[in-house]
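Recap from last week: sequence in, structure out.
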Amino acid sequence: MGYGAFPEMACTPLAFVKLRRLALHREGMWIVRVALQRPYTFIVLALLILLAGPVLILRTPTDIFPNIDIPVIAVAWQFTGPLR
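Predicted structure tokens:
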């Protein structure tokens, strides 16, 4: 029975679960665990985002024609005709 790249690290199922949890924590899955443990917190956060988003978008000033300094490059080329 193989244990992957590290046969000396053969572990029990419980140790495997602990290692997997540690790996998930490092990969960013901690937010899923928190969301499952505290669903109302994430519901309130979602409602705040839904309510604050349109309000902040409407309050953000917009300028139809903003002042932009566009870089300009001038190229002068003199062509005297084909050489014979």
